[in-house]
Please model this.
Amino acid sequence: MDCRECRVGCVFVRNGQSVYAHNVRVLLGDGGVWVLVELSIRGTMKDDWQTPPDLFSVLDAEFNFLVDPCCTTKSKLCLSGCTIDTGSDGLKTDWAGLPAYVNPPYSRGNIEKWCEKCLIEARKGSLVVALLPCDCSTSWWQKYVMQAYEIRFLPRRVRFIDPETRKPAGAPTFSSVIVIWAPGCGGAPPRCKSWDWK
Ligand SMILES: C[S@@+](CC[C@H](N)C(=O)[O-])C[C@H]1O[C@@H](n2cnc3c(N)ncnc32)[C@H](O)[C@@H]1O
Model:
């Protein structure tokens, strides 16, 4: 069962009964009465955490992005953006062959949808760069990341920006990669490298 708010498995069982706890990070129970059913990186990660400006500016200097397909009017990073708060859905919009920067929502099912869209748009002519969790055990990695042009493994963890405080969020619990889908990619395995933006 999924949390009613964020649709991920923030669910606990106590004495045989399910209890919902939205966005719980830490489980501390006396005597082990609380049992964590599922708490994945997606369960601890807010969907709207933003890209650190220093990472974005290094990538932007290299790729000259023109489209941010997943953002709000407040978090838009590029000249053009699909701002979900105004009804513009980046999953349904044509990215018009323009270079796009994608930092998708990480909650369950979202990364897969966005990776599929990234590959589709790259095949139509966009150069697409995405900031994703490093998780090769997922179906989205096997289906879509393995068809990318390049994977950059980040040797340090990304401290995302909390949109409420505008400050770096707590210590990151997972590694990230930059995945690049280039027009015409998918014919050969992605080239891989370690890449430090600092
Ligand atoms: C992880 S944040 C990234 C924000 C910003 N682009 C950045 O990298 O700092 C993902 C954003 O995409 C928005 N979003 C979710 N689904 C979307 C959709 N279908 N189309 C456009 N934006 C979407 C969320 O509201 C959230 O603000």
Q: What stands out?
A: The helical segments are 41-44, 53-63, 110-123, 139-143. Residues 1-30, 32-44 have pLDDT under 50 and may be disordered. Residues 47-51, 68, 70-72, 75, 77, 82, 84, 89-91, 103, 105 surround S-adenosylmethionine (CB under 6 Å). Residues 11-39 form one domain.
